[in-house]
Specification:
Elements (H helix, E strand, L loop, with lengths): L21 H8 L25 E5 L4 H6 L6 H12 L7 E5 L6 E3 L4 E3 L4 H18 L3 E5 L1 H8 L5 H4 L3 E6 L2 E8 L2 H6 L3 H19 L1
Parallel strand pairs: 1-2, 1-5, 5-7
Antiparallel strand pairs: 3-4, 6-7
Bound molecules: uracil.
The site of uracil has 13 residues, from α3.
Length: 213
């Protein structure tokens, strides 16, 4: 299920605090140098939302706007996600939103910084933060937005196109957890038929809303 990590791969593990409250985790993550992505990025973008959240949403990594702002999902993909959550009847303020990777990976060009997908090595290096967030919150359901988030927590056997919109129960180091996978909101923004892709996202999120009751 999960990747077998070579012992010489980078990891954030040494940066994790002993106390695992979200505040302690956020403070410690600000100084994370666990993999090389911290250096060109502006700052660590940690998750946001209440520690009592019943639902956690996991994206890929902060984008350009998030990197500057320090908060996840505040750019174009985030706006689309908020709209879709509302339409699905999910109260955004009661959810915790985070990313599999906490630093923006990009390719610099003279005009702008272009998003670069994090490699498995970055996802694995950052996983201790994500696992610690989930341990601190203990949500009833985790929605994984796109392939990177899926890879981080469920490995490569779950495919977003095949498995989207259905509840997946998995035994994890945090106990039995329920997941739902759906495409990343950026994929909706890029889709040829944006309206259909958006409706399908809302449909998946309604399954999540129903699961929470
Ligand atoms: N895309 C993500 O996966 N996360 C963000 O925070 C922003 C865009």
């Amino acid at each position: 299920m999960s990747v077998k990590v070579p012992p010489d791969w980078p990891t954030a593990a040494a940066y994790l605090p002993e106390r695992g409250s979200l505040t302690a985790l956020r403070d410690a993550a600000a100084g994370c140098r666990g993999c090389p992505l911290w250096e060109p990025a502006t700052q660590t973008v940690f998750g946001r939302g209440p520690a009592t959240a019943r639902l956690v949403l996991v994206g890929e990594q902060p984008g350009d706007v998030e990197d500057r702002d320090g908060k996840p999902f505040v750019g174009p993909a985030g706006r689309l996600l908020v709209k879709a959550l509302e339409e699905a009847g999910i109260d955004k303020s009661a959810t915790y939103v985070t990313n599999a990777v906490k630093h923006f990976r990009f390719t610099p060009t003279p005009k702008r910084r272009i998003h670069a997908t994090p490699d498995t090595v970055h996802v694995e290096a950052c996983k201790p933060w994500l696992t610690a967030e989930l341990r601190a919150i203990d949500p009833e359901l985790v929605v994984l937005l796109g392939a990177t988030a899926i890879r981080s927590l469920l490995g490569t056997s779950v495919k977003v196109t095949r498995d989207r919109g259905t509840l997946i129960e998995r035994e994890t180091t945090l106990g039995t957890k329920r997941f739902l996978v759906t495409p990343h909101p950026s994929a909706v923004l890029r889709a040829d038929d944006r309206e259909a892709a958006y409706s399908a996202l809302v449909h998946d999120l309604r399954v999540a809303a129903a699961a929470l009751g």
